[in-house]
Amino acid sequence: MTNPRPPSWKWVVAGLLLLATMINYLDRQTLSSLAPRIKADFDLDPVQYGNLEMAFGLAFAAGSLAFGFLADLVNIRWLYPAVLLAWSLVGVLTGFTETFEELLLCRTALGFFEAGHWPCAVRTTQRLLSEKDRTLGNSVLQSGAAIGAILTPLAVNAMVGDSTEPGIWRGPFIAVGFAGMLWIFGWFSLIRGRDMAEPPVELGERESVWSAILSLRFLALFVVVLALNITWQLIRAWLTLFLADPQYGRGYSEKDARYFTSAFYVAADAGCLLAGVAVGLLTRRGWDGHRARVLVFGIGASLSAFTTVAALLPKGPALLGVLLIVAAGTLALFPCYYSFTQDLGRRNVGKISGLLAALGWAVSSPFQTLFGQEVKDSGSYDLGIGLVGWAPLIGFVAMLLLWRRGQFERVAS
Questions:
Q1: Distances from the Cα of 357 to the Cαs of 12, 150, 236, 317, in angstroms?
Q2: By the 8 A CB rule, do 141 and 18 touch?
Q3: Which domains does the chain have, with CATH numbers?
Q4: Distance (Å, rounded) from C-alpha 313 to C-alpha 327?
Q5: Digit-coded pLDDT (tens) for 214-241
Q6: Considering the entire predicted model, what is its pTM?
Q7: Burial of 50 (C-beta count, 10 Å sphere; 0-12/13-18/19+)
Q8: Cα–Cα distance for residue pair 403/224, rounded to 1 Å
Q9: What are the residues facing 410 on neighbouring strands?
Q10: Distances, alpha carbon 16 to alpha carbons 19, 30, 64, 100, 141, in Å
Q11: Do residues 249 and 243 make contact, with C-beta atoms less than 8 angstroms apart?
């Protein structure tokens, strides 16, 4: 017999998942924070920079599929730290690249291994948290993305600042990669082998992954994940350049743009956590959990569409204020989405979340290159920024129209 876990333990684990997401985004966002410097050193045009992001996204799609299936087959206690170690090593190697081709290869490998974080993390919250706590747990998990994105420009400013020394951008990649490896010690100190073991399957509880994949609810979630990826990943990749690009941007300095990027992700983190709290309050007042999540999702999607207002504003406080609203609304969508996927497939959550992520990234990643081409052709970020925030509202409509018709009603029926 072993001592039972205290009630607070599951929230300590949720905090550890937050740290993993934070590390994931530190490695991912280092490129974006250093984009003006890297573009200059490698002599990249907007299309080539878009190709870097597209390669990351397509590799993320492949990794989501691979690790989504592995998350249902391999004990998460071992799989999770393995993928974190892999992407941290790739982050270190990025700091030693000498050519665009080497940078592209590292970015591709980073995308593949970083994808393993999400099915492992969602599997963990699904395993450890009850239905009423799961959206808040997913909010804690997802808020690490904002924290990582907050810290990245601050760390880059501390290490790079205004220095024009050639190759100084390499240091942040190496430092962030090595720092991420420390997480593994915390994981093994908190998680025992039995913690992630699945309970026995009761008679009648077995479910076919195909019955979920062929349902209208899966179709709704595909539209949602595509919409979220288009909006969040394009904003994540291009925000610094939108503010600081001397040729096409709003005219902020690199340092000021990075500081505002931190503020942007503070607002995103607040929106993410408020989404989880709001769903929790509504369910405790008698709301059905799904209905509460859909309402919060709809509010977030409406705020995301404020990108159109941002695209019409010149440099100034009004522009920055509207971008903060966009940040809060957009990241609030993710904990709701993760809970939708956990509701769809309780026994196959790794496969379902991985497949959805793969489809979402595969379809949305080419938009990075298209975005870059539009910037190059028009000489402005405004059209792309103005349109990108409307995608989540399409996902919201899909949830309203398709989810209520039944979990296992097939698309063809």
A1: 26, 24, 17, 35
A2: yes
A3: 13-196+209-405 (1.20.1250.20)
A4: 16
A5: 889 999 999 999 999 999 989 988 898 8
A6: 0.74
A7: buried
A8: 11
A9: 215
A10: 5, 21, 21, 35, 8
A11: yes
